[in-house]
User: Fold these one by one.
Assistant:
Number 1:
Amino acid sequence: MVNVVLCGGSGTRLWPLSRSLYPKQFIKLFDNKSLFQLTVLRNKEFAEKFIFVTNESHYFLALDQIEEIGLSMNNVEFILEPVGKNTAPAVAFASFMVEQDQLVLVSSADHYIKASNNYYESLKKAKELAKLDYIVTFGIKPTSPNTGYGYIKADGFNVLEFKEKPDLETAKRYIEDGNYFWNSGIFCFKAKTYLEELNLHEKEIFELSYTAWKNAKNCSPVRIKIDDMLKIESKSIDYAVAEKSKKLKIVPFDIDWNDLGSFDSLYEVLEKDQNGNTRNNSILINSKNNLIIEENSRTIGAIDVEDLIIVDTADALLISKKGSGQKVKDIVSMLKTKNSELTDAHLTVYRPWGNYTLLEQNRFYKIKKIVVKPQKRLSLQKHLHRSEHWIVVSGTAQVSVGDKEFILRPNESTYIKIGELHRLENPGKIDLVIIEAQVGEYVGEDDIIRVEDDFKRC
């Protein structure tokens, strides 16, 4: 079986933890592991191969996290999308890549699922049905009349009807009926079965997706071209295929499952103390049932509070009442109208060569800590509006400036003038750490002209 892991989504309801360049599936919330990593670890026992479909800006972040958990790259393929067009095209790209009789398990990288015997037994049943040319979806028995999920009415393994996200009274009727399941968004089928059904019910999406894949298939990783991607209609696998197909079956998932669509749902799955508080370094007095997440060294003190969401990151603080977590997306929308960088990245930003942390900035200068991994190097580049000063803190730096190349060691420095071609490399066996001071009339991240790049970035 091939596990197709869909890694899209920006997770705006988990801001400020989640940013567009560091979405919720990559946040390490569970014993220093991310939902993405837990998905791979949960499925690698029965998946002979993984295909990850992700935004191209998350490619190297995903690679790093795969490396951390020791997954062999011999069993991994990537499909990189320049923009998201929902799950129907994404699953089509992956289905084109495999043998047509190959069994495919489609799972999301941002769902919380606790692996158990019931989980694996449900997968075995789904494989049996998929071998008979059915498209199998997995249903979660509702625990509450939640209006944030789609519902599926079932009779045994037979799907009677799909229902979109209902209002509260309708959801209550579904619960009382007893034959409805939450739609998990997880599917199992033969590749050809899905493609045949997509071609039958959404022919244009099928044809445009095939053209896009064909134009990109000779790349490694497969990089879908932006012009091809923009032609494809954005539609989920549920709307495009599942709701219309006569080949649909359902297998109940008797498991701990949560799509972590808000801080309220995150609170449900995190460990809590005897007063119902989730916390790390907080000092709480007469306080209960609070979700508290600290992502920096600050200590949070709280007195006589309950049912609050408090999320503290290095550059943003969120405070909300529990039950209002869905409204976090409205804050993100307001930040976007102000063109705030707070929706895009944390102070620490990950790159294929390592990472950098913004220490201080002003209109005319910016100071960063840059970490370059061993045997990695930045692109050969220049800037039109800023000069740079580099000071080595630890490790060894190999520096190219103009036609000169030299080595810098701790407490040594160099200066790069505006417009001068330069490159930074770590030839050593430990991380290279430098402090970079940028000075100029414009210090935006887009003032980079790459001449040569190991990672094929523009």
Number 2:
Amino acid sequence: MQPHELTLADAAQQIRARRLSPVALVDSVLDRIDQVDPHVEAYVAVTAEQARGAAREAEQEAARGVFRGSLHGVPAGLKDLIDVAGSPTSASSRVRAGHRAAADSTVAARLRAAGSVLVGKTHTHEFAYGLTTPQTANAWDRGRVAGGSSGGSAVAVAAGAATFALGTDTGGSIRVPAALNGVVGCKPTYGLVPRHGITSLSWSLDHVGPVTRTVKDAALVLTVLAGHDPRDPASLDTPAVDHRPEREPDLTGVRVGVPRNYYFDHVDAEVETAVRRGIAQLETLGAHLVEIDIPMTRYIQATQWGLMVPEATAYHEGTLRTVPELYQADVRILLEAGELMGAGDYLRAQRSRTLMQEEWSRILEKVDVIAAPAVPMTAVKTGQESVTWSDGSTEAVSDAYVRLSSPANITGVPALSVPVGHDTAGMPIGMQLLGRPFGERQLLRVGHAYERTQPARSLAPAA
């Protein structure tokens, strides 16, 4: 096994035991980037020389018995909305040409303090305003979409071009590409991980979280990232929690909510079969399945767009008026549409969110987690704009991908996408687990218990 094939947990353990050199690990990942990135274009920029320098420093520290933290010497890719001191934050947009971050974002600083080595910045749909990341190809099929907006991060991890990565999630932008590329994506509770130094899409919906190969890896990264930062007005001062799941989690008595409505409506048959098989596996592990009804489903799409669109337009107001020609057409149209939304529409969306949060809180008193599909279909062909369901109805691809993930953004509850197999075309399928606010430990415990029953997942092919 090559070092780039190791999970984060295994790599960190081997480095701490002095069986693996941080230099060897970083070199292996950089070699893998050279091999696969020309085919998938996961990275905006690769910081190879800086990464090698940081790896040499980490190796020298390890030789003295000094380990900065749990991620010492482990290479990571960061979505190119996340500031790293001295590096460009392009947001995959011409609008940001020449931009260079003056200081680390909170999450970049925390990764650095834990010993992680940045190998590059990963592509996003322009300013995270989309669900496909068009410049990046799916790790399993270059003719299919990567998912978005954290597509570069998910593809890099799936292909072995990063040991782990960070993404952001406003309507599913971590979980969607994680599901479509067969990796784990975690959107934490709103306010758990600070967003200071991260380019915003929608202030009241934005989250930042890890993209990893395994649930255990996600727990390791989340433990490093979580914690209060007063520079983010939404950041909450909560007690520090070690999110790492126990080695052999017991799901006896855990109540898993299985939706009767919404989450299995207009879902591809192969996706539904794989997810229901995953849910059945949780029952085999001791979980108690409870049928539930998802509330206020007719308002979900309107609430998501009613919050996101005007907030995004407000953020881009200056550049939209001065350099509109620098935006890609799809993003510019959405930003211009936001100028047509009135204050009344935005306030109604805020009220709808409050009511939805109250209803979800009642459901989550009856169950410990909810299990459902992460996305309604696997990765579509590049350029496909709509999907036709078995009842003859059609839906835009972007609407379909956000449909099952946006409720967790609206309500702020934590959500986790875990791979549960592939369809007959070989494309990955993801199961979504949703939990109570600040219930990440339970969520990760359930995901880890499921994952331990499955064969080890292989990397996506190199080309």
